[in-house]
Amino acid sequence: QMLTAATGVVKRLVVAEQYRGAIEDVRVIHHIKDPRTWFDFSRETCEMIDQVPGLLDADIVQCLPASTDRLFAKRVDVVIRIFGNMKAMGHSVCLLVANQWATGRIQRESLEKYENIARDCGLEPGSDVVFTSRISGKWVAGISRQMVREIFLCSSLFVFPTDHESFGLVVPEAALCGVLLLLNKSLDMQREIAGGHALYFDFGSYNRKHHVADHEQYLRDIAHIILGRIRENETLRAKAFTRQNYNFDALYKREYLPVLSESRLWK
Length: 267
Known about the structure:
Oligomer: single chain
Order of helices and strands: EHEHHHEHEHEHEHEHEHHH
Radius of gyration: 21 Å
Number of strands: 8
Strand order of the largest sheet: 3-4-5
């Protein structure tokens, strides 16, 4: 028999006695609580998750909306390097860059630069770092606002070291989806937009220079601080744990498939 909710030896024993079997005959299978069904994700977002499973599986997930011609201004390279450091510290990562308007040859070729940076940082393009325009060629012009929101709901982090910004709607959008914000201290409006409720580090900006003696060490230190803050935040840890462990795919591989395979061998 399969136990779909209760866990623990005592409850397994109760079920075994009910069916006049042994406790070894009872298998524990947890209830599914998949973000795709709980949040009623769109068909397109589900399709994207099928192609980028790290959106559910990775320890650290971020969605970063950015037009392809603004990747430099948004400092996507800095975000990639921070994610590379977090992976080097033993954590699985998935950075999804929702890049719009990658319709021309120059725009498409510019992505290769960032994918090479990812490789240099020990990240795998297409899994650890993903540009949406690269997925099946389907989202070359961009993804919908609904898809961005739904991927934010899978995220735990939003690193935003942008060089210049006006109000920046993406910050409150990410905040409303319950992520740890890391913003550019060198842009005064970033503190105003988030009400000071974020991690702030200087990255320099269009009107304020910022220099550090060892830039790579600076980014490693930031990665350490991010991981430390996430470890201290029970809400983010519970969100990631639930996302990783109770989705359809994880439970099927870990609990359903062994039971189904065992039942086939018994026949």
